Amino acid sequence: MRLLIAKESELRRRYDLRWRLTGVATRRSGWLADPHGLNPIALLNGHWPAQRETPAKDIREWLERSHADVFIEASSLNLQSGQPAIEHLKTALEFGAHALTANKGPIVYAFEELTKFAVEKKRKFLYEATVMDGVPIFSMFPLGLPAVDLRGFHGVLNSTTNVVLTEIERGLSFDEAVKRAQAMGIAETDPSADVDGWDAAFKVVALATVLMGVPVKIEQVRRTGIRELSEEKIRSVRDAGMRYKLVCRAERRGLGVECTVAPELLLAGDPLANLEGSSSAIRFDMDVFGLSIVEHNPGIDATGYGLVADLVRAVQP
Predict the structure, then answer these.
(1) In the chain, at which residue ranges do the beta strands (DSSP E only) sit?
(2) Nearest in space to 284 (alpha carbons), one of 218, 224, 223, 208
(3) What is the extent of the structural domain holding 15?
């Protein structure tokens, strides 16, 4: 929301795009809706308006009251089912709103269903912010790389493990390194999804499903996290000019895609070995050339930008 406010004049000038916030939903405040518009600056400062009527009891009633044209979904990832994000996006499309998400679960568990439903409803289902924040990976392929054959990719896609491994190299224990990542606002209160490789695995599946056209299931990913790496070994290989990174890989195998997430020992000359802090990187291997992308130390605005970019794409004719 902060980025939308900051870019309001630019969106108006460049795209003739004017927006009004008609609904907000949080665990603490529930389903708040006003079709005449809510004050986003007041909300960001913690000043929530008094409800003029009984709060909406669920997303259907909330969408009815808000009259939203675009629905932005940014709930936490449910590793087991992708819910309630999937149902929220389906309901938004049913009510005639474009559906945007920063949640990987809906792609992993319901990509084909949501894509077909969006087409049926003549609306857009967009998800640029799900992998590498605002880097235009998903939109790049259909627009900038038509007719390429994507044969595979590999990269470092989880910021938390990158920070944790870097801090261990500098002398912290595993637990101290996790706390450091949490203090930076990168790691969740429960860091298991990151350090055990689940976040990275979901990103691999999302990329393989969308860009390679193969509906990989999350249980097909061979996944190993960083929890069992020896702190002493992480530091000793660093002294020898090598580094451990949690590397994601996907490669076509016949009609399928083989996907792995695991710590790898990289030589100093490997571009992935040089990633610091919350930076991430990916290399795409195509039939005509290879392409590498690095995202340097993204903050929260980077994810916000992915959603803002999808908003612009959603409302363009």
Answers:
(1) 23-26, 30-33, 70-73, 98-101, 125-126, 150-156, 222-223, 242-253, 256-267, 280-286, 290-295
(2) 208
(3) 2-134+301-315
Read off the pLDDT band of 52 (50, 70, 90). Answer: low
The secondary structure of residue 65, as a DSSP letter, is H
Does 90 share its domain with 156?
no
- Can you name the residues that pair with 273 across neighbouring β-strands? none
Q: Are residues 117 and 171 in the same domain?
A: no
Q: Does the pLDDT of residue 139 top 70, yes or no? A: yes
Task: For residue 143, tell me if it sits in a domain.
Answer: no
Instruction: Choose among 103, 31, 107: nearest CA to 73.
Output: 103
Residue 270 has pLDDT above 90, yes or no: yes
**What pLDDT, on a 0 to 100 scale, did the predictor assign at position 299?**
82
Residue 142, φ and ψ in degrees, nearest 5:
-65, -30
- Let me know: does 279 contact 293? Beta carbons within 8 Å: no
Q: Looking at residue 290, which CATH number applies to its domain?
A: 3.30.360.10
Residues 83 and 160 in one domain: no
How many domains is the chain partitioned into structurally? 2
Are 155 and 293 found together in one domain?
Answer: yes
Instruction: State how far the Cα of 163 lies from the Cα of 133, in Å rounded to an integer.
Output: 17
Determine the Cα–Cα distance for residues 109 and 127; give it in Å rounded to an integer. Answer: 14
Specify whether 291 is located in the same domain as 306.
no
Same domain membership, residue 241 and residue 196: yes
- Looking at the fold, whether 155 and 216 belong to one and the same domain comes out as yes
DSSP 8-state secondary structure symbol assigned to residue 101: E
pTM of the model: 0.94
Tens-place pLDDT, residues 201-255: 999 999 999 999 999 999 999 999 999 999 999 999 999 999 999 999 999 999 9
Confirm if 93 and 121 have CB atoms less than 8 A apart: yes
Query: Do 82 and 108 sit in the same domain of this protein?
Result: yes
> What is the helix (H) or strand (E) element at residue 36, kind and residue range?
none
Say if CB 167 and CB 176 are below 8 A apart.
yes
